[in-house]
Amino acid sequence: MSDVQQRVERYLAAWNETDPAARRAAIDALWTENPVYVDPLGVAEGRDAIDAFIAAAQGQFPGLVFRAAGVVDAHHDVARFTWELGPEGGEALVVGFDVATFDDAGRFDRVTGFLDKVPV
């Protein structure tokens, strides 16, 4: 598994982390000092806002988990990857893909998300 693939796996694990302290520790380790997360549902600027955004997603979709759907495609300091959200071991209810840029240390600096499949 590539380094970028592992980073994305840790990123998705942070989205699944329901313990607030553990989630924040993961965010602090994975993201730069002033990161930005953007998707069709909103914008989160800074680690505090990203933490709140993830907590809100967990509240909206309780019991569902994010998982990678395929291999990460990456070059230079940019990666794109498809993810799914659904019950553990079940069919995905939501599918999307993210484009991430990294700093020189490999931390997420900006993630732009797109939604390909959403519940009707």
TrEMBL record:
InterPro entries, alphabetized: NTF2-like_dom_sf, SnoaL-like
Family annotation (Pfam families): SnoaL_2
Domain of life: Bacteria
SnoaL-like domain span: 8-108
Record's protein name: Nuclear transport factor 2 family protein
Organism of derivation: Actinomadura napierensis
Organism placement in taxonomy: Bacteria, Bacillati, Actinomycetota, Actinomycetes, Streptosporangiales
